[in-house]
Amino acid sequence: MTEADWPLFEVFVRSRSGLEHKHVGSVHAADARMAIEHARDVYTRRQEGVSLWVVRSMDIVASDPEEADALFEPARDKVYRHPTFYAIPEEVKNL
Amino acid sequence: MSATAAVRGARDAVMEEAHCRYVLRLADTSLVLGQRLSEWIGHAPALEEDLGLANLSLDLVGQARLLLTYAGELEGRGRDEDALAFLRDAPEFLNLTLAEQPNGDFAHTIVRQWLLDAWQLEVYGALEHSSETRLAAIAAKALRETRYHHRFSSGWLARLGDGTPESHGRTQRALDELWRFTPELFAPDEVDERMSRAGIAPALAALAPRWSTRIDADLHAATLTRPATQPYPWHGKRGVHTEHLGHMLAEMQHLQRTYPGAHW
Which domain holds residue A42? Predict the structure, then answer.
């Protein structure tokens, strides 16, 4: 058995309760259970997380880099979508 | 000193020695198994597995450090964890014979690990509720680690046993070879009995059926066959070892023996 025979899994770690799972990398594993164990051993050795997700890399549907212009360019000239045009009252903290 | 006080003093001394030996047995089983696992570093079938085995090894060495430190205090001769780990010879080691068996192939390592994980689950699970608070605290910490170890090893057992004909064959062979060391896991001697009577340690006989049930469930999932029960000729926990321990210790202790007191 070699690593090359094992499918790739993408690993997502939640660093604290209430925060979202973040993509941290990938592991090779023969099955989902092994993928969780490998993810635990590789990515949470230093207390980086409280929860793990793994998903087969081949199950991820990605956008096509060739279509990046069509997908993302139209947002470029729509700066008004950023919430930066509001005057924030002095009294409001932590915004 | 009156005659009864002398008798009581002698009885206390016997109890103290049993207590120390009991803790040393737990410590040495973890230490020796941890050292064996560390031999895989750089050689595991995959990078992730390398890290996985190293993590198990570090957990076990961590348990050994706590237990050895405690055993040294109970002994009262000024030996710390390092003195006990690196400056004792094989006959003074009190680990279970199973722990010192060589790694063999990956299936061998997994079967050895799984048999001992299931044993530690029961022993630490019972010690967690011991009236002896220091040991109970160490057991509670070790138990959390052991639950993961068993998850890891039983997962691999099922994957290998229920895998290809090649992996099934190797795993069954490993099981057949290592099974003869399992009677020692639950064979009580006077140390176990003294600790049990004092309410410090569980009665091993009471743990055996629980271990057996878990073993059968895992074997069933792995489509492996439980070997026949065998006699009990192994006495690692009494300091009588197979030839493998001496070789292992020669490597483990080499640095401290060559450069006494070396540290980094």
Answer: 3-81
Q: What is the Cα–Cα distance from B91 to B175, expressed in whole angstroms? A: 26
Range of the domain at B135: 3-258
Sequence-distant (6+) residues with CB within 8 A of B89 are B249
User: Is A38 among the domain residues?
Assistant: yes
Interval A43-53: pLDDT, tens: 998 889 999 99
Q: Which candidate in B43, B47, B48 is best for mutational testing of the A interface (most A CBs within 10 A)? A: B48
Q: Is B46 on the interface with A (CB under 8 A)?
A: yes
Which strand (E) or helix (H) includes residue B71? helix B47-75
Beta pairing partners, A54: A11
**Structure confidence by residue, pLDDT tens digits, B28-85:** 999 999 999 999 999 988 888 899 999 999 999 999 999 999 999 999 999 999 999 9
d(CA A71, CA B238) in angstroms, rounded, equals: 72
What ipTM was estimated for this complex?
0.73
Could you give the strand order of the β-sheet that contains A8-14, starting from the edge strand earlier in sequence? A21-28, A8-14, A51-56
Pairing of strands A8-14, A21-28: antiparallel
Number of domains composing chain A? 1
Contacts 24+ apart (CB under 8 A), B120-123: B120/B146, B120/B149, B121/B146, B121/B147, B121/B150, B121/B211, B121/B214, B122/B202, B122/B207, B122/B210, B122/B211, B123/B26, B123/B202, B123/B207
Residue type at position B239: G
The answer to whether the pTM exceeds 0.80 is: yes
The answer to whether the CB atoms of A38 and B159 lie below 8 A apart is no
Report CB contact under 8 Å: A30, B55. Answer: no
Q: Residue A38 maps to which CATH number?
A: 3.10.20.520
Residue in chain A nearest B58 by alpha carbon: A45
CB crowding B105-141: b at 16 or more within 10 Å, else e: ebbbbbbbbbbbbbbbbbbbbbbbebebeebbebbee
| Pairwise CA distance, residues B77 & A61, whole Å | 65
What angle (nearest 5°) sits at the alpha carbon of residue B196, between those of residues B195 and B202? 115
Tokens at A22, concatenated: 């973040």
